[in-house]
Design brief:
It is built from 16 helices and 36 strands. With 691 residues, the chain is α+β, with helices and mostly antiparallel strands.
Length: 691
């Protein structure tokens, strides 16, 4: 069946691990009539957790999509992972959706990953689903208060629980003024609101009407004049206010017992944001981001939000259509590759089960199979003059390991698999570091990298060795120095001759390199300048302390001498290289190490231990904030101290802490630390020479 833009809703289900996202997703599909029964997570048969590694570990690793139809509306649901190691899947699902539903455990309240996801959402409309309310420690109102404290918003209940703990028996649908009894293994049953809950329901309805009135000035005037709104006016206001992120709807339920599912689906179908209200980020001619509206009436354009590989269907390119209509067997232009692309079949899906369709209209999400050129973040459009969509805003990897195949013959095969893994998850990186001669893989944590390496061993039968990667240190100078060098070689016939005199001086950190030609009077002819600069660049590639690249240095060529017959570009290159190295030895050379900006998110009870650990890692604390029991610590820490930080932080915080990291600058090191770096470098160079 084909749906118009006005018949489509997209919802990303997200939250901290173990809050019941996959269970909710499973019961949404069951209630929507897509599957005959909802499978428990432990069975390994849920629609969304279908890969061998997900079934084995009983966690979501990949985002999954499924859809239900309600009152003629197609609702695409995305089940996303809860671990920060797989945050790339969450971000791609947020990009595809107009509404995010954050799961909150009724016992624990807001947890760290939920705090981070809330920030990622920026201005996107979002709601909260408070779950596990049948647990004796769960408290719906306490969870609402925790959300209010941590996020500085006042959630508006759309559904209320009837009872709590062992007395929980269902939910009240405030919007439609009815109640639903827990369904157990069946779809929940509608019933009148019990007398004991009518006062609470009436108070909640007043709050919902106030939220609706905030969606439109006219409605606000009517509300102030009449003191209420009609059901149609209320629905209109809720749609408008939610599209503007003016309120946060809150839902109650126990998905495992089919409680709270029907009212949730009804609310999304009736009042969830329409794709027409959404904006997407496009790049202008200068590469700056601007906003563009989703529009079904314009020529087709779409963004590739994800790439996966299926053993039966091959490469799957997930696309969100932003404008127009995408049709199977049509021709589009891949703006990122600068070439035309002939599309084959188009599918929607229920988990990993593909369902072939003829077209996708603006606002919908689907899958293109076996594309030759499409990659994540590519823009496809009707013409090559369309604007490209901005790429996904993904965090930088925080954990790296150096890898190599145990058997040399498997190196190429290993590389092919790592390239594919990096395409499937854009938060995973695979690079060869020519400076350290290592293949380094990086990701969001030890779990993500461990799963990828396990797949290599299991599926590709490749044994892989891992180790802590080497650090890319640098060398620089601390004072000015002069040097000269004469390259002279006589070998019958033409000889080699070139003399270079130069001066080097330190530059401010981060300015890297400046070359100044200060020759007057023709002591070195201008045509030898390229040779001189090549020599300097070669000299900079290997410093005099530990043969690390030299940075932040100005080189001024002041004088020299040439021979009309024996001089050549090669002669001046060799003379300049040796003159630079001699000047380096006299200019107070020092080592530089990379310093990273680190942001750590922990529960307040771990704050002291984390701060102490960072001090022991030579960290400099820049500041900290604390909101509702979650502490954010900002620091600058040497990269060498962070190579295993994901493991250290997990140990300190019992697995609850998380962090982000990004390169900041290079900073000098000396003393024992510098001596250890130099010794390690000498050992590496000796080993390299033996090989």
């Amino acid at each position: 069946m084909s749906y118009t833009t006005d018949q489509i809703k997209n919802v990303a289900i997200a939250g901290h691990g173990q809050t019941g996202k996959t269970t909710l997703f499973e019961h949404l599909l069951f209630t929507g009539g897509v599957i005959p029964r909802a499978e428990p997570l432990e069975s390994g048969k849920t629609v969304s957790d279908s890969s061998p590694e997900e079934i084995e570990r009983k966690i979501s690793i990949h985002a999954a999509m499924g859809h239900v139809e309600r009152n003629g509306t197609k609702i695409n649901f995305f089940d996303t992972p809860g671990s920060s190691d797989f945050t790339g899947n969450v971000i791609s699902s947020f990009r595809a959706s107009e509404f995010a539903l954050l799961m909150v455990d009724g016992r624990s309240g807001v947890q760290i990953e939920t705090v981070k996801l809330w920030r990622i959402l920026d201005e996107k409309p979002r709601g909260v689903f408070i779950t596990k309310l049948d647990n004796d420690q769960a408290d719906f109102n306490k969870a609402l208060a925790d959300i209010k404290e941590k996020f500085k918003v006042d959630p508006v209940p759309v559904t209320l629980p009837m009872g709590s703990g062992g007395a929980f028996k269902g939910v009240i649908d405030i919007l439609h003024d009815k109640a639903y009894l827990t369904g157990g293994d069946a779809v929940e049953k509608e019933c009148p609101i019990p007398d004991e809950f009518k006062d609470a329901a009436a108070a909640a309805r007043e709050r919902l009407i106030e939220a609706a009135a905030d969606g439109d000035d006219t409605l606000m005037d009517m509300y102030l004049e009449q003191g209420s709104l009609s059901p149609e006016e209320m629905k209109k206001g809720l749609i408008a206010a939610l599209a503007q992120n003016k309120y946060v709807p809150a839902f109650a339920g126990v998905p495992l017992k089919n409680a709270g599912i029907v009212p949730l689906i009804d609310f999304i179908a009736n009042a969830g944001p329409n794709p027409r209200t959404a904006k997407d980020a496009v790049l202008d001619a200068e590469g700056k981001e601007t906003e563009a509206a989703l529009d079904p009436d314009k020529p087709v354009s779409a963004l590739v939000i994800k790439t996966t590989y299926d053993q039966f269907s091959g490469k799957l390119s997930w696309v969100k259509v932003i404008t127009g209509k995408l049709t199977a067997d049509s021709e589009v232009f891949n703006l990122s590759e600068g070439k035309k692309e002939r599309l084959g079949k188009i599918y929607t899906c229920q988990g990993k089960k593909l369902e072939e369709i003829r077209e996708l209209t603006a606002g919908d999400v689907g899958i293109i199979t076996k594309s030759a050129t499409l990659k994540t973040n590519d823009t496809i459009a009707a013409t090559d003059s369309a604007q490209s969509f901005a790429p996904l805003r993904l965090p930088e990897p925080v954990h790296s390991v150096a890898v190599n195949a145990t058997a040399k013959k498997d190196d190429d095969k290993l590389g092919e698999f790592l390239v594919r893994a990096a395409e499937e998850d854009k938060t995973f990186r695979y690079v060869f570091n020519g400076e350290t001669k290592e293949t380094v893989i990086s990701g969001m944590g030890e779990l993500q990298i461990g799963i990828i390496l396990d797949k290599i061993k299991t599926n590709q039968k490749i044994e892989v060795e891992t180790r802590v990667p080497k650090i890319a240190y640098r060398e620089t100078i601390t004072k000015k120095a002069n040097a000269e060098y004469t390259h002279k070689k006589q070998t019958g016939g033409h000889g080699q001759y070139g003399k270079v005199m130069l001066e080097i001086a330190p530059l401010p950190r981060g300015e890297n390199y400046q070359f100044v030609w200060a020759i007057f009077g023709g002591s070195i002819p201008k045509n030898y300048q390229p040779g001189v600069e090549k020599g300097i660049i070669e000299g900079k590639a290997h410093g005099t302390m530990a043969q690390y690249p030299v940075v932040d240095v100005e080189v001024k060529i002041t004088d020299g001498k040439y021979h009309p017959v024996d001089s050549s570009e090669l002669s001046f290159k060799l003379a300049a290289r040796n003159a630079f190295r001699e000047a380096m030895r006299q200019a107070g050379p020092t080592l530089l190490e990379p310093i990273m900006t680190l942001t750590v998110y922990v529960e307040e009870k771990y704050l002291g231990d984390v701060m102490s650990d960072l001090s022991g890692k030579r960290g400099k604390i820049l500041g900290q904030d604390s909101v509702g029991g979650i502490a954010e610590i900002r620091a600058e820490v040497p990269q060498a101290e962070l190579l295993r930080y994901s493991i250290d932080l997990r140990s300190i915080t019992s697995g609850t802490g998380s962090f982000t990291v990004a390169f900041s600058h290079y900073s000098p090191i000396s003393g024992r630390i510098a001596d250890d770096v130099i010794k390690a470098r000498e050992s590496f160079k000796l080993q390299e020479a033996d090989e």
